Amino acid sequence: MAKMYYEKDCDLGKLDGKVVGIVGYGSQGHAHALNLRDSGVNVIIGLRKEGKSWPVAEKDGFEVMTVPEMTQKADVIMILINDEKQAAMFNKDIRPYLTEGKAIAFAHGFNIRYKLIDPPAGVDVFMAAPKGPGHTVRSQYVVGKGVPSLVAVEQDATGHAWDIALAYIAGIGGARAGIMETTMNEETETDLFGEQAVLCGGVVELMRCGFETLVEAGYQPENAYFECIHEMKLIIDLINKGGVAAMNYSISDTAEYGEYVSGPRVIPYEQTKANMKAVLNDIQDGTFARNWINENQTGRCYFNSRRGILAKHEMEIVGEQLRSNMLWKNDNNLDNASN
Predict the structure, then answer these.
(1) Residues in Cβ contact with 329 at an 8 Å cutoff, skipping those fewer than 6 apart
(2) pTM for the whole thing?
(3) CA-wise closest residue to 184 among 113, 255, 282
(4) Which of 40, 76, 290, 330 is in the most buried spot, having the most CB atoms within 10 Å?
(5) What CA–CA distance (Å, rounded) separates 182 from 190?
(6) Closest by CA position to 321, among listed 230, 222, 227
(7) Model confidence pLDDT, tens digit, residues 63-72
């Protein structure tokens, strides 16, 4: 069984007198910064001077400075910019200004797992990884809850890395829901696999195929959207609350019977498992990481073309039209999370 930590196991006081620097002010960055500040932690923000997030962070009341300036001032540096940008930024703007006793932190182990960042000796290296998007990290904290989080220590130079890591996660609200101990390698490989095979890649392809099957059979696109896409959240909410059993309790017996007889026809078990194992192998041996880094170094041609194709897909167009007429139509800007 995995080792779990909760609020009683974390001492937020371990951050007393310390300055926490957040690199980046996007989805995760703004959530970590606001939650930590609301927990009584001294937080500063490190950004590119010309970046669009600079005035946003200042408007939220933070002291904002360049990353080199922040690194010199902060005791704990949490790096929350995109994975593919972290190594270049770290080598240019953080490494030259690190001194012994400081700590660098990540919310995903990608750059440590694939050795794109090689931290110097003398500094603590830990991971504080909420298992949810930044906007949820913030909204759950605001209502007194939290997002379950993972913790890992890659390098304990000071002997206090675990205490600091747990205090940090408590500060962003993760200890309210539970903190699971892991390693950066395990987190990276399972996170990438979950995203690709199930949560993002698998689910999106399943919804797209379902939508297209109904539309091609002559059914209204709007009906296909409601049945194959909109209801996905309602089903997942039930599973999130009480597992598959809670979903099956809430749906009709007809739907449950269809689950048993048709699910394996849509997703053949043996072939799907074989395909998933191939995806996992690419993650474990570094193939995916190499391809992703190369994609960024060569202009993101494939990435951008697929994003463009998706934007023009009928399911996206129909969905946007339907959502625009719903009562919560103005609640669609993910960058305007509650402060």
Answers:
(1) 323
(2) 0.89
(3) 113
(4) 76
(5) 11
(6) 222
(7) 999 999 999 9
